[in-house]
Request: fold
Amino acid sequence: MSDKIKDQPPIAPVSERGDRLKKLDELIKAGVNPYPAKAERDHPIEVVLRDFEELAKAQKSFTLAGRLRSLREHGNLTFATLEDASGDMQLVLSKKDLGEAAYRQFIKLIDSGDFIQATGACFLTHKGEKSLLVKDWRLLTKALRPIPDAWYGLKDEEERFRKRYLDIILNPETKVMILKRAKFWQAMRLFLMDRGFIEVETPVLETLPGGADARPFITHHHALDMDVYLRISTGELWQKKLMVAGLEKTFEIGRQFRNEGMDAEHLQDYTQMEFYWAYADYEKGMALVEELYKYVAQETFGTLKFKIRNFEINLGKPWVRYDYCETIKKMTGIDVLKTDEPAIVKKLKELKVEYDPKGFNITRGLDNLWKYCRKSLGGPGFLVNVPVTIEPLAKRREDNPELVQRFQVILGGSEMGKGYSELNNPLDQEERFKEQQKLRDAGDEEAQRHDSDFVEALEYGMPPTCGFGLSERLFSFLMDKPARECQIFPLMKPKN
Reply:
């Protein structure tokens, strides 16, 4: 007799659901509550497996709880696999130990997928498999649908995302990804807190979306009878107001929303971290960010070496600096400080770069040229020396006011975070907002809005400040997976 547990053969879900409903009815008639609130679990499975020899020697009785993943009858014995979040373990149920009534109820009315608690003691089977000899059991949840077959079920990507709970059950790598995602954000939080940053929360609903170039989602606030926007940054302008207020190191990890296109890198509803650091400039910001990325990668993945989009990337090697103007000129021949819109359009067509003509202007044109160039840059490194027309919220360079003190992390041909020496001159900020508003009026939906409240706050004085933000795109790149796959529950269209 083999002790290896085999899954029950797959049954048509519709007919099996009917069978399970009948079993549910029989359980209720027998006085069994199929959905009790309380469980008496006193040991997770991983602890039992870890301390198995000691528990077996003591013959101590304990209680496990979890989902049944397989069942196999063999005469007066039934073998089952019980699974909880920490692992799985074989259960052995016998008519002799349970009594005929309890044993018969189990084999007749319990299915794989049900949650039970099982009380018993450790023992080794003659094949040497660590097992629990069950003395008593109790139903915790009756499952009305069978878990799909591990081999034939959920092969379609859309179905996996739509039924992520089944994907997690069937695919261990999905669960591993979720655990790493949690470690990723926790490591970032601990890194910043250890360096004196305090975590804050800023509004998700705003009367004026700011802090980024993006199209917002709009909703209606019924209590105040006005339209509001879901934020497009994680509190950038709010956190800068906290710098005005005298707080010197803040950060926020939260959701932000951008009503834009979807692809392997971009989502509309995603997690972002932003920090703001008073009395620091973008040079200090780059040093801290490099340290942050190395720490988070090591804590989450246990390595600084990654393969991303065919790039071999080592975060531990010296980070290079990519000059925006020099890189574009070298790769396209365009001098971004002297070019004009017709020249950019001509070059984009020559390079066969697709772009949206709606609201097109020189700023959008330069951005498209840069995106063409960055695809060949593996990193790790920082993009620096961006023209002021590209970044309306950053300080100008003192030695060249046409450029700003902005940096972007470059990894695997993409941008993995952005920061800058924050603009704290209210008069300069006012003029830049006016220029952005002109772009919006001309049809550029991603240009920033004029925010007079923020300008007023700056007039009270904000110290020199470095700000930086990164999104969960970084996690997806380190996983070398599409951003959508690295969300636990990505947004899906409802089934018709």
User: Anything to note?
Assistant: The chain has two domains: 13-147, 166-319+379-479.
